[in-house]
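On to our target:
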Amino acid sequence: MYHGASYNVSVTLDNVNIINSNYGISHYFTESLFSLHITNLSVGGLSSLFFSKWLQFKNCNINGVKLQSTIVIEDSQIHNNLNGIIFALFQDYFQLDNHHIVITVKSCSIRDNDYGLSINGGFSTSAHISVIDTELVGNKGNEIVGCLSIIFNNITVTNSQSTGLVVIASVVTVENRVVFKNNTGVVGGGVAINGSSVVALSPSANLEFIDNHATYKGGGIYFVKEIQSQFDFISVLHQIATPLKWYSAFVFKGNTAGVAGNDIYGFNSIFEYFSASALANLSTSSDASAFALCDPDSDETTPIWYDNEQQRVFPGQPLKYNVALFGRTFDTNSYSLTDGRITIEINGTIVIDKYINNCSLIKFTTKYINHYGKHNITLIVTTDTSYSTKLSIPFILNECPIGFSVNSSGVCDCSVSRENVTCDINTLDITHNGLLWIGTYHTSTPFNDNETNPNACIINEDCLLYCSPNPVTFQFNHTDTQCVDNRGHRMCGSCTEGHSLLMGSNKCGQCHNNYMMIAWIALFAVMGVLLVVLLIALNLTVSVGTFNGLLFYANMSILF
């Protein structure tokens, strides 16, 4: 439909069915005042239902003529299209010469479209839009952008696949009942309110959020950020007249979110001012405004406030902290779990910038920094350029233990380098391929990895006789692990405690306790006396053949 400059053009479409067409309704007016009324329309399988374009008016001042165009779509069925109803207004077209446009969508069913309802108001103050008694069902998404005057009256938004309704930089007035049910999205299951937007409630307003789900945040409502705009004052004035309305204007039931804010995510000062007490029992959260240490083994993440306990580490060992982030709720005395980024500084230098969720482990490998002793690690959470919170925690950096020294990378490594020998400062293990003995000169002194003895003499020698020929992993307080045959001490040179050399061998055997030795001696003493008595009683001598026969039998038994 094309039309040039006109005083007034009136078009009515009634009882029209459009199915599987490449084009919907195209509306192109140039420098015209117009009235378009569509009723009882049924469309399906189109790329788009409605396209309108209007050019700027010039010198259209007629005495006694109201410069207003209208579009009305009512009692229509818009199903299974690529786009349902889309309006795109350009500010210049309806900003000059006091020319206004009024758009009304009433008693329509907009179902199963990619975009169900999409309105871009172009930030025009001359456009007034109303959506009344309409259902938006099963659409992938619906959005309102740059609309400075739009009314929602008795609207149902259900089963949307990419957020029930996205509101960007708009002023939306709610009248009567507006329901968001069983919608899903990433941020905001029911509604995502982005940018400088305001939702103003009339005295009759009732907003319901039921069984919506966000895979990330804000099952019912998601506020992108703190709303600060020229329109905040409109919302404040509107609500001062009816502050008690906030207590009954909202219904939240069965909403869920994957990370935070089952009902509401995001902090809004206007929202909080009028509704904090009414919404205090909801599941709400926001960007991180606090954090604390936490217990990862607990079923519930609760803050563990820092108690000045200092971790002690060697260069190369990690500092470990379990940290949880908390956002604001409408209950001013509580916080709720959220996610975000945390930055770690050591002595003013950033060493980690990490995303964390729930009670997360933050681990940083320390290095030698100028000096041993006390250092500070600082955990910082920054949500925007104007707000951040931090916590400084001291830790002690110890000198490397015996057998280790700081290498060029600033971490503890083997103090005496040798081929096929590795050292792990995290476990304090030393590994080599065998036939080697590594240890301190005084093995009788208990090894203490928290003490440093720079004068300790480290032995690192081949050991061919008594050391294990297989790969060995040991620690300095268990150097005997390198030895075989129950040997130990320096260079495996003697038996370990509780063992002694076996007769005719270099192996060490286990020593029995004193009571067992006394028992054996007593037994053999008694048996010796009984043997002599038996020989005398039986008259067994070397001259007697019986005795010689017994000896022969005993010798043969040994052989076989």
